[in-house]
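Q: Hi! Curious about what N-acetyltransferase GCN5 looks like structurally. Here's the sequence.
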Amino acid sequence: MISLSGKNIFLRALEPEDLDFLFALENDEKVWEVSETLAPYSKYILKQYLANSHKDIYEAKQLRLAISDYNNNLMGLIDLFDFNPKHRRAGVGIIVLEEANRNRGIGKEALSLLIEYVFNHLNLHQLYANISQENKPSIHLFSNLGFERIGVKKDWHYAAGKYQNEILYQKINH
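A: Let's find out. The predicted structure is below.
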């Protein structure tokens, strides 16, 4: 049986009540580099996004899930994007908003749950992640969960006044 519930956290669909969290996350300039955001989002736009977040992954080609603890505290988001059912692959991204919640195993548990879900329920063959060479915590997380470094995109991102390489990681379901 597929479960999106772990020992300390669970993954769930976004709800209208998540607007304030989403607003804080999408407008936090510290995470813009990861999300490639260039300008703030209004609550109006985010309400529209939430209103359409119910769409099936086969229609929307993406899936965004909330990472929540069992006290219903929203801690972060995990995304599937570029979903391709023909080739049975998708990209994955994850963010835990508050620094106090990072390096506590939340990301590892969330990503583990998502991997199990996509390989056993969506029947995907592979997941991939694009990670800035500067993002050591994400490199560590994905590597520890069996993602392999398969390539480098040179000077892919311009951030903090310099170009940075992006590393492509891939996990194949054998």
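A: A fun detail: The radius of gyration is 16 Å.
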